[in-house]
Every structure is written in structure tokens, then in C-alpha cells.
Amino acid sequence: MSTPDLDRARTFVLTHGRLLDRLRLLHLAGEVEADRVAAALDAYRNPDGGYGHALEPDIRSPHSETTSTLAALELLDHLGLHGTAQAEGALAWVGSVITEDGGVPFMRHESEGWPLAPWMATDDKGCHLTFGYVAQAARHGLTPAWLGRAQAWCDDRLDAPEGLGGYHLKYALKLLDACDDDPLCEGRIEALRHHVRADGSVPVSGGEDDEGLRPLVLSPEPDACSRRLFTDGQVAADLDALAAGQEADGGWTFDWAGWCPGQELEWRGALTVDALQTLRRHGR
């Protein structure tokens, strides 16, 4: 079993990471309070309540974006800052971008023309992020006006689980974990089991040849309802692989395409903190 080198990980993040991720690391180490991290997150917040400015490293637009705003809500959730004015404003902003089908789009037209990863593209239909937003509304205990339409969008797809896969599955599990008191939750999770390969991973359609979503990406919390999809052996093997994934410079990296140096370092800083959080959560 590999053991991560915490000193090298700390040096990597403090040397290469964004201020936000440096503070996330220091918060994980117990050196700064959650509100210091939230203050750094506010730098990405726009007056409309959404978040942009490359909080999602693959989209360099200053405009409020659905990927960035969801990342902000998830960070507030991880910090235990639920139902704050920031969360309320972010969820209210979503109402301005909801599509005709009741879903949340992948990217807004306002960001076209800004530096973007090749796979970032506009679409006027709802996407997998819709599951994530409904999950965050539940996690933050908020009921924005658009919630009913988005929940119906999610229900339609959970009722036909054979059409889900890759990132749809990842975010569907986030929703089911956030609403695990729903009597339908257990059955809906079981209906997704056939998507999981023997090693516990789920392939990403259209991704890199070796790109896949691992058990700890699909179900990062040890006590989550979704964990029933994975065996103890699959989770243990993934924890071993995660611990062994630390690179010589002390950081962790990603298995999707890198397309500019800034994007690569920003992702690596964030993912290094994520890796340390996951390993700690599992006693590693």
C-alpha cells in the first residue's frame, strides 16, 4: 500500500496551486478557517450570483458559467457552509439559464470566443450538470423557483437509466446520495449497476482512450448510499491506485486532455487537494 508524501504534496500545492487551492490545503491541515477559503472563492463570483473567471479551469471566460457555479456550490458544501447568501445567490442565478426542457446547459453562449478546452461547447438542452444542481439544492436546504422543473428532468432520466453513462452517472449518483431518504433512491441506484465495469469504473464516451471514472470519483464518501455499487475490493484497489498516483513533483494529475499550461497546473493543484481529502476520508 502506497503512502503519500504529505510534505511533497504541500510543497506542490503551495508552489503551483491557485490561492483558492492553497487555502483549501491549509484548511485541510487545520491552519485556516473555512471562511478564509470562502473569501477566496468570492473572487470568482459575479454580481449576478454566478461564478466564472476560470474557477472551472477548462473555461477561461469571466462570465458566470454552469460548471464554475456548480463547483462553487460543491466547495461551499464541502466546507460545511450551507444555505449561505453565496449559495442562495448561485442557485437563484441558475434560474436565468434553465433550458426549455427544464435542465441546466453545459456552457453559455456568452463564453464563446474566450479561451476554452476543445470539448467545451454550447448546447441549448439540459445536461448532466442538472443532477448536480438539484443535489446541491438539497445539500444546501434551499428550494429555488426552478427546482421542480429540474427535478422532473432528472426523474425522466432516472426512470430510463439505460441511457445514462459516464458523467451522467457520476452526477446522478450525487443527486441520489443527497436525497437518500427518498424511498426510490435505493432502487434507482441498483438500476445503474449494469453501467459499472468489473474494476468498478465507468467509461467516458468520447474521452481519452484510457479515460474512465473510478469508484472514488463516482462515490467519494465512505458512507454514501451509492457506495453499494462497489465492492470493498474495488474501493481498496482504487485507494491504493490513488495513493500511488502521486507524481515525482508531489502533485496528482488528471487523465483527460491538457490543452494549456495554466489549465494543467490549476487542475493539478485542485486535484492534489482532492486526493488528500479522499485519502484522509478513508483513513489513508
From TrEMBL:
Superkingdom classification of source: Bacteria
UniProt name for this protein: Prenyltransferase
Biological classification of the source: Bacteria, Bacillati, Actinomycetota, Actinomycetes, Propionibacteriales
